[in-house]
């Protein structure tokens, strides 16, 4: 493999080495500038030769990061993600990544360039004209898109490493996520009793659906005689296609058992909907949706959220969105001791770890109850042992029986005055027995 070293100034050396031809047969030359001694330069040249032989070097390219991101968006991301996710990718790339990082050559993008952009976003990243920067969670979303795009560049041998994987993400404060108490949930249901929002709120509370899953629910997804709901799809709002339907977030359908109250309410709701269909006649557009607009068309997600917020305000509850009810459903299951795996399946989480995060936040409120139950368990076991006349093991493996005639007699060591340790053990045992009576 041909290569050379030539001086470019005091302590600066230029390296050149021929790489393997690309898919078109065109030959490429790799250039590097090294600072240090001539020995350092030849050591770097030897390393480059090994990298070329192992096919670990990318072809030289003059593509900027901005041009690559547009290509990656159109040629790779478009066919692999839902339309809603694609539009989010497009917004992040066009409005944030390209303005801050798009001018860098793809092959020369360094971790420090990315880190600097993240720092600026945290202090001055808002686009709405308001002072302040973006949250750490928002920067993490931008990072996820950039890292995924650069990972594709690495696979395509456009870069030799992924600089985004070497960047430290900013740490943000964990935002407190609110869940309703039993009384607040009852107030919300009571205040919505005469409105169109009552049944959606009831279903969200008892089933833990996402907003899009609720609005995409069809009558064919319900088996009311069996009390079963099958979540097969979700609804999203897009800029180009309006309202669209997609598969659930974790990519899998799930079957949920419905409480009897929900089944009865759904049956009554179906009769009401059939009456609306007869009144409107041909003007009713039947999409088989359980929760639709008055004319049968899909209920737009934003409109649903606005009406939900007004309903919560009318119930004199804190400002919140429909997702609060999903979190409330998870919290209720945690408090009721539902197995996390069952709760995870019911909520449609991709992994049970997401469910355990909710359970861990509820755990501090359940500590007192757990301690009380543990106390009752231990005390009950001790009582049963005494009532059955069993022997309680003391130190040294020696048993002490409450029914023995010798139990009140001092041991030989105690009588001789050498049983101080044995006497303390006996006293400790007597105190413990008294505690469990």
Care to describe what's here?
This protein has 437 residues and is mainly alpha-helical. It folds into 4 domains: 3-53; 65-166, Tyrosine recombinase, N-terminal domain (DNA polymerase, domain 1); 182-363, Intergrase catalytic core (hpI Integrase, Chain A, Orthogonal Bundle); 389-435, no CATH class. The protein has 15 helices and 10 strands. It has helices at 38-53, 65-77, 83-101, 111-124, 136-155, 182-191, 198-207, 211-215, 260-280, 301-314, 323-335, 340-347, 352-387, 412-415, 420-435; strands at residues 3-9, 12-18, 29-35, 222-223, 228-231, 234-238, 242-246, 254-257, 392-393, 399-400. Strand 9 (392-393) and strand 10 (399-400) form a beta hairpin.
- Fourth-level CATH superfamily of the largest domain: Intergrase catalytic core
Protein structure class:
mainly alpha
Structure summary, number of beta strands: 10
Q: Roughly what percent helix?
A: 40-55%
Low-confidence segments, given as residue ranges, are 393-404, 407-426
Main sheet summary: 3 strands, antiparallel
Strand content: 5-15%
Shape: extended
């Amino acid at each position: 493999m041909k290569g050379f070293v030539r001086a470019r100034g005091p302590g600066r050396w230029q390296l050149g080495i021929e790489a393997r031809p690309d898919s078109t047969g065109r030959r490429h030359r790799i250039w590097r500038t090294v600072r240090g001694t001539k020995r350092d330069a030849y050591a770097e040249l030897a390393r480059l030769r090994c990298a070329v032989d192992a096919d670990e070097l990318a072809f030289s390219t003059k593509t900027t990061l901005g041009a690559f991101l547009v290509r990656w968006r159109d040629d790779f991301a478009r066919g692999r993600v839902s339309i809603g996710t694609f539009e989010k990718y497009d917004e992040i790339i066009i409005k944030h990544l390209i303005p801050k990082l798009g001018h860098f050559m793809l092959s020369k993008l360094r971790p420090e360039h990315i880190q600097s952009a993240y720092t600026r976003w945290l202090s001055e990243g808002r686009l709405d004209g308001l002072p302040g920067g973006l949250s750490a969670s928002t920067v993490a979303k931008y990072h996820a898109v950039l890292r995924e795009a650069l990972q594709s560049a690495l696979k395509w041998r456009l870069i030799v490493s992924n600089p985004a994987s070497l960047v430290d993400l900013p740490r943000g404060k964990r935002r407190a996520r609110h869940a309703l108490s039993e009384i607040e949930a009852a107030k919300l249901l009571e205040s919505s009793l005469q409105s169109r929002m009552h049944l959606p709120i009831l279903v969200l509370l008892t089933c833990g659906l996402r907003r899009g899953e609720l609005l995409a629910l069809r009558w064919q997804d319900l088996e009311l005689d069996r009390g079963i709901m099958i979540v097969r799809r979700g609804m999203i709002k897009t800029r180009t296609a309006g309202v669209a339907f997609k598969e659930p977030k974790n990519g899998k359908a799930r079957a949920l058992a419905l409480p009897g109250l929900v089944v009865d309410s759904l049956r009554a709701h179906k009769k009401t909907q059939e009456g609306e269909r007869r009144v409107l006649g041909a003007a009713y557009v039947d999409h088989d949706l359980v929760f639709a607009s008055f004319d049968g068309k899909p209920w737009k997600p934003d409109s649903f959220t606005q009406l939900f917020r007004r309903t919560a305000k009318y119930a004199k509850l804190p400002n919140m969105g429909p997702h609060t009810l999903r979190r409330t459903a998870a919290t209720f299951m945690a408090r009721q001791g539902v197995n996390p795996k069952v709760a995870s399946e019911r909520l449609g989480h991709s992994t049970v770890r997401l469910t355990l995060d909710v359970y861990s936040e509820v755990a501090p409120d359940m500590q007192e109850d757990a301690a009380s139950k543990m106390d009752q368990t231990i005390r009950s076991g001790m009582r049963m042992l005494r009532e059955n006349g069993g022997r309680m093991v003391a130190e040294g493996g020696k048993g002490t029986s409450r029914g023995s005639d010798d139990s009140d007699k001092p041991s030989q060591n105690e009588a001789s005055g050498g049983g101080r340790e044995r006497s303390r053990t006996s006293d400790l045992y007597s105190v413990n027995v008294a505690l469990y009576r």
